[in-house]
């Protein structure tokens, strides 16, 4: 059975793709006047990962999909775009193999089999790292974590600026998700109000049927900045990270035999983290920040 993308609820189906593009491109002007949101460092600045010799590498074929905006999608001009696409190109540039790099988009459901059949060398598409996948593939170090966040209705007065202020308020979650379990584990004093879908949850928050919600920061970040929220709400407290509930983060999946290439990609990711280029890519696609 095909593994799901890293986010338990992806942006596909969360809002229309046209709306995503409208919000995404219009956000640049507004973000230029705001303080730049920071990207937590996942690599120790003192750590130096060896750069393997790739002189014998014939080519590096990245595989991705087009249904996971803002990570990988087709833009208004039909061009393959997104955070993962720009990152793949930066990795190739850092490794000085840009002339050997290719990026190909195929259906998400076909990515795992295509990598196993050597139809590509690395998958950069948001696969969730699972024990089953680790038996067949290896993964790079994570380059981005997707945290959980609260979002609050601004019309509701809160006595404080931390999650403790929500203890006497109804907080919505999507039933049966990792975020519901995480809310119960992290904040047992908060009264959870479950909803069957994310759309129902956000509609209830907008209409003040709940005072706050707890969900994926990626989706909440775009929603509060979109017309759908009618400027009702804002991100509140956090971010909250948990490998137990939210997984290991965004990684690149490779075949087990490609240990040298995996080490090279880890080296490139660490370098991009230290020199700020990973932060630059992050700001292109998350001008309002996730953290």
UniProtKB/TrEMBL annotation:
Pfam family membership, one: SBP_bac_3
Keywords for the protein's UniProt record, in alphabetical order: Signal
Domain Solute-binding protein family 3/N-terminal: 59-289
Coiled-coil segments on the chain, per record: none
Major localization listed first in the record, in broad terms: periplasm
Compartments, as annotated in UniProt: Periplasm
InterPro entries in the cross-refs: Solute-binding_3/MltF_N (IPR001638)
SMART domains per UniProt: PBPb
Keyword Acetylation: no
PANTHER family, A to Z: L-CYSTINE-BINDING PROTEIN TCYJ (PTHR35936:SF35), MEMBRANE-BOUND LYTIC MUREIN TRANSGLYCOSYLASE F (PTHR35936)
Protein name per the record: Transporter substrate-binding domain-containing protein
């Amino acid at each position: 059975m095909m593994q799901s993308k890293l986010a338990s609820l992806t942006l596909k189906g969360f809002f229309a793709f046209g709306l995503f593009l409208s919000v995404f491109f219009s956000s640049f002007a507004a973000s230029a006047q705001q303080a730049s949101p920071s990207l937590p460092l996942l690599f120790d600045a003192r750590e130096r990962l060896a750069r393997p010799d790739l002189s014998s590498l014939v080519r590096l074929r990245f595989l991705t999909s087009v249904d996971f905006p803002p990570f990988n999608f087709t833009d208004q001009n039909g061009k393959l775009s997104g955070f993962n696409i720009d990152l793949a190109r930066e990795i190739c540039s850092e490794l000085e193999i840009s002339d050997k790099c290719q990026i190909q988009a195929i259906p998400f459901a076909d990515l795992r089999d295509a990598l196993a059949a050597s139809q590509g060398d690395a998958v950069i598409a948001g696969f969730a790292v699972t024990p089953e996948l680790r038996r067949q593939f290896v993964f790079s170090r994570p380059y981005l974590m997707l945290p959980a966040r609260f979002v609050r209705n601004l019309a509701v007065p809160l006595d404080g600026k931390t999650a403790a202020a929500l203890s006497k308020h109804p907080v919505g979650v999507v039933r049966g998700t990792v975020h519901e379990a995480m809310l119960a584990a992290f904040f047992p004093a908060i009264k959870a109000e479950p909803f069957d879908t994310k759309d129902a949850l956000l509609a209830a928050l907008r209409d003040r049927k709940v005072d706050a919600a707890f969900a994926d920061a990626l989706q909440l970040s775009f929603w509060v900045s979109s017309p759908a929220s009618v400027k009702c709400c804002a991100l509140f407290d956090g971010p909250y990270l948990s490998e137990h509930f939210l997984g290991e983060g965004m990684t690149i999946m490779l075949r087990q035999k490609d240990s040298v290439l995996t080490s090279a990609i880890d080296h490139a990711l660490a370098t991009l983290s230290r020199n700020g280029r990973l932060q630059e890519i992050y700001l292109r696609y998350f001008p309002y920040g996730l953290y």
